[in-house]
Amino acid sequence: MATPLEKFQFYRDEDKHECNLIAARINAFLTSQSLLLTAAAILFSGLKNPPAGEQRLILLPIAGVAIVAAILAEIAIWIGCDVLRQWH
């Protein structure tokens, strides 16, 4: 049988672990978005007079990947927050 102090330490460690996971997910999300934004900025600055279709052909996949990454990150962050709510 665990003592109250051991239970407290267990729950505190679990809470800390979930907070670290959420922080890592947010960090990964921000990093991915900044890299995709950098790719878009390079695209716009590198092509002075690009054909209209060529720029759109490259930009749409970048935007699509950014949107998918944002959705996946939001789901992962909400799952972590839900776990924390259940602990509390």
Features:
rod-shaped, 88 residues, mainly alpha
Task: Compile the SSE list and pairings.
Elements: H1 4-46, H2 52-87
Helix pairs in contact: 1-2
Beta-strand percentage? under 5%
Please compute the radius of gyration using only Cα atoms: 21 Å
Broad structural category? mainly alpha
Strand segment count: 0
User: Main sheet, how many strands, which sense, barrel?
Assistant: none
Q: For the terminal residues, how far apart are their CA atoms?
A: 22 Å
Q: Determine the mean pLDDT.
A: 84
**What low-confidence regions span 5 or more consecutive residues with pLDDT below 50?**
none
Please count the helical segments: 2
Helix content: over 70%
Anisotropy-based shape: rod-shaped
**N to C succession of SSEs:** HH
Report on the architecture of this protein.
The protein is mostly helical and 88 residues long. Helix content is 90%, strand content 0%. The chain contains 2 helices and no strands. Helix 1 packs antiparallel against helix 2. The radius of gyration is 21 Å and the shape is rod-shaped. It starts with a helix and ends with a helix.
